[in-house]
Amino acid sequence: MNQRKDTYRAALQRGPDAAVPRPVKVAQLYTRYVRVTIELDTGLPRDLMRWVESPVSALGRAGAAALRPLRSAP
């Protein structure tokens, strides 16, 4: 129990892992009346692939399983 408390306290003192700023790409557009700044997170494609990979592969396996009996039918 004490080890768990110590681990928890150490984690609280470390702070969140998200405190490190992620690299961003900045695109700026200036016109006479409008100023627009767009910041793109460079880690977004990697995060998006991590979130989407599992559901897409599950759909692919389900589709393959559904089509398997159709292929074997005469």
Describe the structure.
By secondary structure, this protein is an alpha+beta fold. 57% of the residues lie in helices and 19% in strands. The chain has 2 helices and 2 strands. Strands 1-2 form a two-stranded antiparallel sheet. The N and C termini lie far apart (64 Å). The relative contact order is 0.08. The mean pLDDT is 77.
Task: Give a short overview.
57% of the residues lie in helices and 19% in strands. It has 2 helices and 2 strands, in the order H-E-E-H. The chain has helices at residues 2-14, 44-72, and strands spanning 24-30, 35-41.
Overall pLDDT confidence: 77
Based on helices, strands and strand pairing, what is the structural class? alpha+beta
Estimated share of beta-strand residues:
15-25%
The count of β-strands is 2
Low-confidence stretches: none
Principal-axis shape:
flat
Q: What pattern of helices and strands is seen along the backbone?
A: HEEH
* Distance between the amino and carboxyl termini: 64 Å
- Annotation field: number of helices: 2
Strand order of the largest sheet: 1-2
Fill in the keyword field for this structure.
74 residues, two-stranded antiparallel ribbon, flat, 19% strand, 57% helix, alpha+beta, single chain
